[in-house]
Write a structure and sequence with these properties.
There is one protein chain. This protein is α/β, with parallel strands linked by helices. Helices cover 35% and strands 23% of the residues. Helix 13 runs antiparallel to helix 14 and helix 16 packs parallel to helix 18. It binds 5-amino-5-deoxy-1-O-phosphono-D-mannitol (M6R). The site of 5-amino-5-deoxy-1-O-phosphono-D-mannitol has 16 residues, from helix 9. The site of 5-amino-5-deoxy-1-O-phosphono-D-mannitol (M6R) has 16 residues, from helix 9.
Length: 611
C-alpha cells in the first residue's frame, strides 16, 4: 500500500526521492516523509496529507545529501499524523527506517524493547524496526548483520529501506510479502516499491525476493539471505517507456489511461493471434494441449475491478470453451476450503500482481494441488513470479487508482484464452475463430470512435452530478460491466451506486426507483435486448430516469430513456470492452464536476498489499 523510494549516488537525494514518491503516490497518500544522511546526522522531514505538503516544506528549507529514503503512507497502525508518518528513527536518531507492510508481532516486540529502555513515540508497528535495528547494531556495529538480526525477530510483511547517520555510503533494503525492487544506475542505485518511481533514471531492475536483503552503495549492489549467504540475482530490463508514467497533458492519469485503451488492446493482442490459421499463441501460460483438454473446472480469483473482469471471463470461457467456471473474490476463496483438484485450473487476475488477498488465494490453490495461471500487468510482481504461468496484459503502468486500461487488457487476455481453449477443446471451428480474432482486432477503432465523441457523455455527466444514488443494470455478459460501472462511479465520486442483473430488479431493488435515482441501463444489441427494454419500462413506470447505453443506430431507445450514450456495434461477447468506456467516462466527468481527487480518491490505495 505505502510507497518507498531510496537513493544512493552523487545527485541531490531529496529531489530524486520526492520525484519518485510523486510517481508512487497512488500507493498511499495520507502522509509522507523523507530522511537524508546529511553531514553525519539524519535530517528528517514529515508532513500530514498529500506529498505536496512535504515537497513544499523541502522547497523552502532543502536538505542536502546524497543518500536517503522516503515514504508515502496509507495508514494501517495509527492515524495519519506527522508523528506516525515514516521514516521512523531510533532513540538516538542514528537510524531511519521506512516500511510497507504489517509487523504482526509488533506488540510483543514493543513490550520487550520498552523493557530494555527503548522509548516509543508513535502508534505505528514500524517504529519497532528502528529500535530493533539499534538493538542489533549495539552488538557488533555491522549494519547488514543488524538488519538480518532484526528481520529474524519480526513476523509479518515488510518492505523496508534503512539509512544510518554515520554510513552515507550505504543504503539497506529488505523484503518479505511486500514488493521492493532495486534499480541499477551508473554511479547511483535506487530502491522502490514499484517500477514507475525510478523509470526516469533506470530500466535495469533486480526483483528482491522474500527474506532477502540488499546492501547498496553508489557503485554496487549485493544481495544476501537472512543467514548472510550471498545470492546472485538476474538483472531484468523493463520495457515501459517513462512517458507512460507521466500525465502528458491530460488533467488526470485516469483520463489519460481511458484514452490509452485502444493502444493497450493492440499491445495485449500483440503477436498472440494468427488469423489465417485461426490460432492463438499463449505459450507463456505453460499448459499443454492435453492439460487444457483435461480441465474440468476453472476458478477465476481476483479482487475489485480484476474480479469483475473475471465475471466477464466466466461468460467467455463457458461459451467458447464449454468448461464450468466459478468466479471468486480472493478474500473469500482463501478461507472457504475450495474444492480444487488436479483437474482444476485456477486463474488469478491482478493488475499490480501484489494484491495480498489474491496472492494468498494463489498460494492456497497451489497448496491444494491446482495448476495456477495469472493474468497480470506488472512484470516480476509477486503473483507473476509465483504462478505456474503468467499471461502479461501489457497495459503499461496504471497510475490512476481507479483501474481502467488494465480492466480492458484483462478482458482482452480472457478473450484470447477463451478462443484458445475453445480451439484446443475442438469446440470452435476455424472460421468462427477467425471471425472472433478479426472482431477483437477491430475493437481499438470502435473505442476510438467513442473517445472522439465524448461531448454527449460530458453533457450527461453535467446534468447528473448532483444525484446521491445510482442504479446500474445489465444482463448476461454485461451484468459485470454494470458492476464495474457502478464501482467506478462510487470510488471516484463517492456517490452511492449499485449494480444488479436487470432481471433481478423486480425481486427487490425496484423498491428504490424514484425520480431521485438515475438508472444506467446497458441496452446494447444482444440476445436479451427485448428483455432489458422490458426492465427499462418497469423503471419508467415508476418515474425512474434511465440513462441507456445503446448501440449506434438504435433510435427506438430514445422513447424509453431520458438520455442515451451510444456505442458502436460489435459481437455480443466483445461488447463489455466497448460498453465499459462510456461508463468510465461518465464516472470520470461526474467526479471532476464534484471536485473529487480523481487519481487519488479518499481512503483508497492502488495496490492493496494488506489483508
Ligand atoms: O492490482 P489488482 O488488480 O489486484 O487490484 C485489485 C483491486 O484492488 C482493484 O481493482 C481496485 O478495485 C481498483 N481500485 C478498482 O478501480
Amino acid at each position: 500500500m505505502c510507497g518507498i523510494v531510496g537513493y544512493i549516488g552523487k545527485e541531490d537525494a531529496s529531489e530524486i526521492i520526492i520525484s519518485g514518491l510523486q510517481r508512487l503516490e497512488y500507493r498511499g497518500y495520507d502522509s509522507a516523509g523523507i530522511a537524508i544522511v546529511s553531514n553525519g546526522v539524519i535530517e528528517r522531514r514529515r508532513s500530514e496529507g498529500k506529498l505536496i505538503n512535504l515537497s513544499g516544506s523541502l522547497h523552502v528549507d532543502p536538505i542536502i545529501g546524497h543518500t536517503g529514503i522516503g515514504h508515502t503512507r496509507w495508514a494501517t497502525h495509527g492515524r495519519p499524523t506527522e508523528f506516525n508518518a515514516h521514516p521512523h528513527v531510533d532513540n538516538t536518531s542514528s537510524i531511519a527506517v521506512v516500511h510497507n507492510g504489517i509487523i504482526e508481532n509488533y506488540m510483543s516486540l514493543k513490550e520487550d524493547l520498552k523493557a530494555d529502555g527503548y522509548k516509543f513515540v508513535s502508534q505505528t508497528d514500524t517504529e519497532v524496526l528502528a529500535h530493533l535495528m539499534a538493538d542489533e547494531m549495539s552488538k557488533d556495529g555491522d549494519m547488514a548483520a543488524a538488519m538480518r538480526g532484526a528481520l529474524k525477530r519480526v513476523e509479518g510483511a515488510y518492505a523496508i529501506g534503512v539509512v544510518h547517520k554515520d554510513r552515507p555510503d550505504v543504503l539497506l533494503a529488505g523484503r518479505k510479502d511486500s514488493p521492493l525492487i532495486i534499480g541499477l544506475g551508473d554511479g547511483e542505485n535506487f530502491i522502490a516499491s514499484d517500477v514507475p518511481a525510478i523509470l526516469p533514471y533506470t530500466r535495469s531492475i533486480i526483483y528482491l525476493d522474500d527474506e532477502e536483503i540488499a546492501v547498496l552503495t553508489k557503485d554496487n549492489v549485493e544481495i544476501f539471505n537472512l543467514d548472510g549467504d550471498r545470492i546472485e540475482k538476474p538483472v531484468e530490463h523493463i520495457e515501459w517507456n517513462p512517458v507512460l508514467a507521466e500525465k502528458s497533458g491530460y488533467d488526470h492519469f485516469m483520463l489519460k489511461e481511458i484514452f490509452e485503451q485502444p493502444q493497450v488492446i493492440r499491445n495485449t493482442i500483440g503477436g498472440r493471434t494468427d488469423e489465417e490459421n485461426a490460432q492463438i499463441y499463449l505459450e507463456e501460460i505453460g499448459l499443454t494441449d492435453g492439460e487444457i483438454k483435461n480441465i474440468e473446472t476453472i476458478y477465476i480469483v481476483a479482487c475489485g475491478t480484476a474480479y469483475y473482469s473475471g465475471c466477464v471471463g466466466k461468460y467467455l470461457l463457458e461459451k467458447l470453451a464449454r468448461v464450468h467456471v466459478d468466479v471468486d473474490l480472493a478474500s473469500e476463496f482463501r478461507y472457504r476450503e475450495p474444492m480444487v483438484n488436479e483437474r482444476t485450473l485456477v486463474i488469478v487476475i491482478s493488475q499490480s500482481g501484489e494484491t495480498a488477498d489474491t496472492l494468498a488465494a494463489l498460494r492456497e490453490a497451489k497448496k491444494r494441488g491446482a495448476k495456477v495461471i495469472g493474468i497480470v500487468n506488472v512484470k516480476g510482481s509477486s503473483i507473476a513470479r509465483e504462478v505456474d504461468g503468467a499471461l502479461y496484459i501489457h497495459a503499461g503502468p496504471e497510475i490512476g487508482v481507479a483501474s481502467t486500461k488494465a480492466y480492458m487488457a484483462m478482458l482482452i487476455a480472457l478473450m484470447l484464452l477463451s478462443i484458445q481453449f475453445g480451439r484446443i477443446r475442438e469446440l470452435i471451428e476455424a472460421p468462427e475463430a477467425r471471425r472472433l480474432i478479426r472482431k477483437l482486432k477491430g475493437l481499438p477503432s470502435k473505442i476510438e470512435e467513442i473517445l472522439d465523441n465524448i461531448e454527449a457523455i460530458k453533457d450527461i455527466a453535467d446534468r447528473y452530478s448532483e444525484f446521491r444514488d445510482f442504479l446500474y443494470l445489465g444482463r448476461g455478459v454485461n451484468f459485470p460491466t454494470a458492476m464495474e460501472g457502478a464501482l467506478k462511479l462510487k470510488e471516484i465520486s463517492y456517490i452511492h451506486a449499485e449494480a444488479y442483473a436487470a432481471g433481478e430488479m423486480k425481486h427487490g431493488p425496484i423498491a428504490l426507483i424514484d425520480r431521485r435515482m438515475p438508472v444506467v441501463a446497458i441496452a446494447t444489441r444482444s440476445a436479451t435486448y427485448e428483455k432489458i427494454i422490458s426492465n427499462i419500462q418497469e423503471v419508467i413506470a415508476r418515474e425512474g430516469m434511465v440513462i441507456a447505453v445503446a448501440t449506434t443506430g438504435d433510435v427506438n431507445i430514445t422513447s424509453y430513456s431520458k438520455d442515451v450514450m451510444y456505442v458502436p456495434d460489435t459481437d455480443e461477447l466483445l461488447s463489455p470492452m466497448i460498453v465499459v468506456v462510456p461508463l468510465q467516462l461518465l464516472a470520470y466527468y461526474v467526479a471532476v464536476n464534484r471536485g473529487s481527487d480523481v487519481d487519488q480518491p479518499r481512503n483508497l490505495a492502488k495496490s492493496v498489499t494488506v489483508e
